[in-house]
Amino acid sequence: MSDRISLGRIAMRSALQLRRMLSIPREAPVNVYDVATAVGVEVQFVDHASLEGMFYRGPNPRILLPSWNHRPKGRIAFSCAHELGHFQLGHGTRVDEYIKDLQGPGSKSDEEFAADTFATSLLMPRQAVVERFARRGWDLAVTNPLELFIVAGELDVGYRTLLMHLRYGLDLVTDDWVMPRLKVTPKKLRQDITGNCEVSRVVVVDDYWPDVPIDLEVGDVIAIPSTFVVEKGELIRETSRRAEYALWSGSFVGKTDLRINDRRHTVRIARTGYCGLLKYRFLDDPDEA
After folding, report:
1. Domains in the chain, CATH or no CATH each
2. What percent of the chain has pLDDT over 70?
3. Which of 36, 220, 249, 283 could crosslink 41 through cysteines, CB 3.0-4.6 Å?
């Protein structure tokens, strides 16, 4: 067995063991920030465009991440899971700089490869990915880009990250399947959903949204099927309505409930481009951070 295969298996087992320790089933999506908090790792968002992520090992372990102003939401969540992998796998302090096009596995050190494997296993284990499609009766072979975008949002990963994992991580699809779907950009999908090319973040919430909080920043959009009955909570408002979706936006910082078809969802809203400790992220008083 090659060293890389062995490292990958160790990292995968570590991620799945962490899920078991936290009583998170393999088929369930996770909120990686809540996982980090649960194991005693403090997360902090910083205003550094050149930073991909940093893990500090010490008496009070900490993960530093760029603010959402600097990177897509799914990519930052993956970076958090990657840095959490360094913690769980016993690695020392690490600083990962931003690289526009992420490197392939072969160009990374063993520790970086292991941390990546941990991250994909934590966020996208096979059971969780397959379950997302199966619950809706979607056949992966003919799944369209919008459906993939919806599933990526539920797993809190990027659209392209999910495509690459389906192909190279899980080997569930072929190159011929991936290539045309890669040509469709998240920006185009966001525009198709909202009718607005300027919307930077949108999450589709329907009857299949998992039991994890809906994390937003002020101005982010929640797209809810227009036929659904919505009993809004505080802090969010309906901004527009299209044929397929009613569009709701986070208006104020804080935590609230959103009831959709009699099911309650927790919505957590941060200031735009929030920098500071995770534990203060959703407090409406800036002096608290």
Report:
1. 3-123 (1.10.10), 132-184 (no CATH), 198-283 (2.60.40)
2. 94
3. 36
